[in-house]
Amino acid sequence: MTEGFGLAGRVALVTGGASGIGGGIAEILAEAGALVVIADIDEGRAVKAADALRAAGHQAGHVQLDVADEASVVRGFAAVVAAFGTPWALVNNAGLQDRQLLLDGTVAEWERVMGVNARGPFLTSREFARAVVAGGGGGRIVNIASMALQGALTQGHAIYASSKAALLGLTRASALELVGHGITVNIVLPGGVATPGAIAAQGPAAEGPGRRPPPMGMCTPRDIGVAVRFLVSPDAKMITNQTLAVDGGWSVS
Length: 253
Ligand SMILES: NC(=O)c1ccc[n+]([C@@H]2O[C@H](COP(=O)([O-])OP(=O)(O)OC[C@H]3O[C@@H](n4cnc5c(N)ncnc54)[C@H](O)[C@@H]3O)[C@@H](O)[C@H]2O)c1
Fold this sequence. Notes:
Layout: E1 11-15, H1 20-31, E2 35-40, H2 43-55, E3 59-64, H3 70-84, E4 89-92, H4 107-135, E5 139-144, H5 158-178, E6 183-190, H6 196-199, H7 221-232, E7 243-246
Helix pairs in contact: 1-7, 3-4, 4-5
Bound molecules: nicotinamide-adenine-dinucleotide.
């Protein structure tokens, strides 16, 4: 008997779960039986997303937090543990995708993007791991990076690609440090997904070799959610420190 892929009785926290890819991940995990906590900086949209999951017959809650802000993350995780118990899974999905050419690069933009995309997952992974280690039951972390880490880039991704490379480093280091606590840490690389954040991204036109179309078409947020569901499942207990691309065949094009 395996433990299966179901998540009944388990709490899964999705950062940036109020929009786009995070919304698709939240739906898929809720459909697998998890109580999904939407952890987002936008409380109004987090409430709506959690309401929608409950209206569809699933279990859901929300917490307002800014992943880039240490006090906010510490407070948010304490609130989640108090309200829902020790979480089983953390999906580090919240991220900024704005572009800026290296020649125009500013430290302010570096700090802003790295704050959300790199410091954020560092802080949330730390608080999640502290809660899980205190609870003693093991768990799952999935980090959402980008195909910007592998293969072709588009113009304006110097800071963005750097932030996702930092997330890969965090994945490898936390997989090592948490393996003895039964916590797996893996990283998913989405290809192009037409989300509110991707469409509204600011900066120079996203031109360059990374613009070529994926042979199977664009991914949906739920396509990314399917990969995450596998990695957070109880049966994926022997899989850690791995990279899984979900890119509609972009890597073979
Ligand atoms: N859309 C794509 O094509 C694509 C491709 C590869 C990787 N990604 C990655 O997927 C993730 C989600 O992207 P998306 O396209 O769904 O974006 P999105 O902008 O549609 O959604 C991001 C969510 O994160 C929340 N958020 C932003 N800053 C936050 C903060 N400081 N604290 C907490 N929540 C915050 C937003 O409120 C929003 O709900 C990002 O990490 C992005 O880099 C996206």
